[in-house]
Each structure stands twice: as structure tokens, then as C-alpha cells.
Write a structure and sequence with these properties.
About 45% of the residues lie in helices and about 20% in strands. It is α/β, with parallel strands linked by helices and about 160 residues long. It has a single domain (about 5-145), classed as HUPs (Rossmann fold). The N and C termini lie far apart (about 35 Å).
Length: about 160
């Protein structure tokens, strides 16, 4: 069946619930997981452009720190379940494009994502991006109905 699953995460409480479901799904299939997170191109905003200009090292370190926090929890969960895993970070503004590209580059045969995600400015990876991935992906997409639960918050 599926041997390599891409799991996009945005660090939200909902993503924590999705993570647990995705790990269990991959474990049941004996599949490997590639976790993906996208940092919004904050440098494209006025404030971000200023920060990038004044302190490029601080700007890049902040982006990497947030992404590493999200992905380290995902990798720990997968390894605890005995799964082979990988992680990818991209900076951009169209998450659905990055999700589809990473899935292809990594040789994934399924994208596993939440039915909805963060709202407003925090909607980096999931949510409306799910509909766009469904519309544009050449790969199968499993849309999980993940409900946040206590202890699943990836932001802590």
C-alpha cells in the first residue's frame, strides 16, 4: 500500500493531534514519514524586510528555531514508534505548492494532512491549503479529521 507519507505540520494544537494519528497510521502500514513545515516568508513584509536588513543572522535563526521546534517533536514521536523519518523546512508563501513539491522530491506516495488548521495570519500550512493540495496534487491525499486534545499541543 503506502510506503512513504508526507505529513505537513504547522505547530498548532491541531497539528499535534494530526501527528499522533499520522504516526499510528504509518506504523500500521510499516511506512516511513517525511514531516514538512513551512515558515512564512516574513521577510516579504515591511517589518520582516527591516529585520532581515538590520540583522540577517537573527532573522534566519528565528525562522530555523521555530521550524526545528515543530519538527523535533514530530521526529521524536516517529522514532518512539520505531518509524524511519525525515524532516523538511521551506520558507515561502504558498504552502500547498511547497507541500506538493516536497512530496515529489522525497518520493512520497501519500500526503496525510488535517481537514483544517490555523486561522487568519497563522494559517501557514494547513486549512485552506488542504483544499489546494487536494485540487493540485498528483498524489493521493488522506484528509484526517484531527481534533485537538490535551497534551497534543506542539507549540509548548
Amino acid at each position: 500500500m503506502y510506503r512513504h507519507i508526507l505529513v505537513p505540520l504547522d505547530g498548532s494544537e491541531l497539528a499535534g493531534a494530526l501527528l499522533a494519528q499520522a504516526v499510528e497510521f504509518a506504523r500500521a502500514l510499516g511506512a516511513r514519514i517525511t514531516f514538512f513545515t513551512m515558515a512564512e516568508d516574513y521577510g516579504a513584509t515591511q517589518e520582516g524586510a527591516l529585520m532581515r536588513t538590520l540583522s540577517p543572522e537573527t532573522f534566519e535563526n528565528e525562522i530555523k528555531r521555530e521550524a526545528a521546534a515543530i519538527l523535533s517533536k514530530a521526529i521524536a514521536a516517529a522514532k518512539a514508534a520505531g518509524l524511519e523519518c525525515d524532516a523538511v523546512v521551506r520558507v515561502g508563501s504558498e504552502a500547498y505548492v511547497q507541500i506538493i513539491e516536497v512530496a515529489g522530491e522525497k518520493g512520497c506516495d501519500l500526503i496525510y494532512m488535517a481537514s483544517h488548521g490555523r486561522r487568519g495570519l497563522k494559517a501557514l500550512v494547513l486549512g485552506s491549503q488542504t483544499q489546494k493540495v487536494l485540487t493540485h496534487s498528483p498524489l493521493p491525499v488522506l484528509v484526517a479529521k484531527a481534533a485537538p486534545s490535551r497534551g497534543s499541543d506542539m507549540t509548548t
